[in-house]
Amino acid sequence: MFRFFQKISKQVNKLNTFVNDYKSVAKEVSLPSYAYVNWGAQLAESGNEKDALEKFEQSAQMVNSTPEAFVNLGIIFARKGEFEQAIKYFKKALKIDDTYAKAWALLASAYSEVDEVREAKKAFKISLKFDKRNFHTYLNQGIFFAKIGETQEALSSLKNAYLLNPNEAQSVFLSGILYSQAADYGNAIKMFKLAINISPFHSEALYHLAYCYFQQKNYETAIGYAKKSRSANPTKIENYTIMAESYMALENKDECFKIYDEAKKAGLDSYKLSYSKGICYQAFDMWEEAIHIFKTLNQLDDSNVASHYALSLSYLKLDKKEEANKELLKVLELDPKHTVCMFNLAQLYLKEKKCDDAIFWYKKLLAADAKFVSAYFGIACAYQLKGDMQNAIKYWERAYEYDNKNIGALLNLANAYLSQNDLQMALRKARSAYLVDKKNPDVVMTYAIILLRGDNIYDAMEKFTEVLELKPDFVPARFALIECKIKTNKPKEAMAELEKYRDEYGQKREFVMLNLLAYLKIDEMEQNNYLSGQILDICDKILSTYGEDSWVQSVKEEFEKKQNNAECEG
Of 157, 356, 360, 492, which is least packed with CB atoms within 10 Å of its CB? Predict the structure, then answer.
């Protein structure tokens, strides 16, 4: 806020140029106060603040003291960070002249430094009342509004500053920063380009243009502006990271790592540059190289969250569970509210089937962010693994409450209710999912299966047909349609359809089970025992190949009795 104070003394100095001239003017009775003010200003400009302070104080103590003396005293203290003292002197200046716009502006800036928001707003307003065309006042008011988060007011004030001085790039540059922070990259780009039109070698404007284009995924343009920024400021590391990560996004591995080599040749090295290189290693599946970089960064600074978290992701990718666990816990030690880290740790425990540990971290995550929907999924899956379907359903329902368009929650709920034989609730959830996304084959398939379980056979057949329209080679849907044909008393058609898949799926359990169902339906319809032998052969094949099955065993026993009875009668 007070960066321009170093230039103030030049504006104040209106009488003479050299200290010796001030000494001679000080001998004049008519302007002693002004003489000391300007003498102090020259001393301040040369860096001699102690002597400058003495001259300003001498001027302030005179009977005919000017407000400028107190203003300059305030500036000296403001530059030292003693804002309360600066405020006192700016107020003294205003006691001499309460229409002095510059004193009001400086007072406003000092108030903003001590977070006196209301007083700062008031002082800026009064300053502009007395001087409506002051570029610096509008500029600093814009900075003040930005600081307190009033972005629109900041942009308005900065626009006024630009209109007053269109040859000064700072106002439009700061406007670009505000737009960029709000992720309004289109307007940010306009402002930064305007800054470059005013100041063609404005390296920061060039860099931020590169950054905005990078955020818009316009990587080629981002690279171009980063190169221009690098030409204007060869030591700015962010130019190298923008270029390298843009090449990374363009999947140009050689050019990506060439940038890091160029940075090394330029003698540049920093945490930020190494971290960026580690991220690029990850992007190109060079996980061991990434691990080496992040471990080195952690050795240099063990308190950095980003490098520990990046290291944990590398370990997770390589399925190094123990190392990943250690790094994730380290991240949470450094940043206990790192919700994504909590989620990854919980997922790791869930993968290892450590359900209680997983539930603990999911719930800890939800305590920090109740709308983290994936955590509800995780808890539900953990309870499902524990065999606690009631709690699983409870947490899938919560996920659905927070996101009633969430297909995953609806499908999981449908299947969970189906596992509990609650066909009514299963059908309700499946139908809701279908209404949200009728073009999702998984959704339509789930809906069809539940319809079939509820003996809504013709509706199920319609949905299985829809699945095949969306995904023509989806064999489970074709097998489901074959099952529907069996249930609608068309077993021979079903068997003919099955023959098309014998070579590829003849040894699959689903195929053999459908054959069994078809034979059973024919036996039921024709009421004779000539198929008993085939049915028993299929039952034996299922039990010997795929293991115990109580239903198949019961079918086998039933047809053995039928066969025995037939032999006795014969």
Answer: 356
* Residue 9 to residue 44: CA distance in whole angstroms: 7
Tokens of 352: 């290892």
Cα–Cα distance, 429 to 523 (Å, whole number)? 37
Over range 213-222, report the average pLDDT. 98
The Cα 537–Cα 446 span in angstroms is 32
Summarize pLDDT for 278-320 with one digit per residue, the tens.
Answer: 999 999 999 999 999 999 999 999 999 999 999 999 999 999 9
Give the whole-number percent of the chain exceeding pLDDT 90: 74
Please spell the DSSP secondary structure of 531-567, one letter per residue.
THHHHHHHHHHHHHHH---HHHHHHHHHHHHHHHHHH
479 neighbors 502 (Cβ within 8 angstroms): no
326 vs 329: CA distance, rounded Å: 5
Task: Please state, in angstroms and rounded to a whole number, the distance separating the CA atoms of residues 461 and 488.
Answer: 10
The first and second tokens of residue 392, run together, are: 């699983």
pLDDT value at position 187?
Answer: 98
Are the C-beta atoms of residues 433 and 410 closer than 8 Å to each other? yes
Q: What is the DSSP letter of 62?
A: S
Q: Which two tokens stand for residue 251?
A: 């999947």
φ and ψ of 141, to 5 deg: -65, -40
